Amino acid sequence: MMILQIQIQILKLRVNENAHNARFCTKRCLLGLQQGALLDDACPNVVLHKQGGDGRRHAIDSTTLVQLVKRQLDDNINQNCTPMGGCEASGAPFKVTCAAYGYTVVGKGTTSCQWPELLREAEVYRVLQQAQGSAVPVFLGAIDLEKTSCLHGAGAIRHMLLMEWSGKPISSIENMPSCPEFYGTLICDGP
After folding, report:
1. Which domain of life is it from (predicted)?
2. What fold is seen in the domain 23-163?
């Protein structure tokens, strides 16, 4: 039964490659992947994550996921990698799915010119490792792509940070100062 479910999920993923309608993995799923913990049965992609494993734990780790995604994007950056719209100063968000295991995450893509800034961001995620999944998105790793993808408004995307989908960007929240989600939150500006 489990093998049939996996085969159906893989077939759906391949049939819908162009539509790229896979759902994002849950925070708990990606934390489990990062920490070698149990699978999150609430993750919409859990059936695919079970491939080749014992059915309880992730069959791969986050380092392997980053390597698989890099190989996949180097082979064909337009397959299972879709611009999500919008472009921030340091990069543009992409929806990225690892075809082999179904992990669906955000890839923050950027140009070679902006790459040093994103490497600093990656270092901040590493320093804040213990806060990932609560105050900070789950960070999986960085990728240097072999091929460049040109994205209107963002430039020639050559690098990506892979991380958890955490919802709408702060800039999209109307009336942010009066938004209850931000009461008691300290926002610091600085170098």
Report:
1. Eukaryota
2. Phosphorylase Kinase; domain 1 (3.30.200)
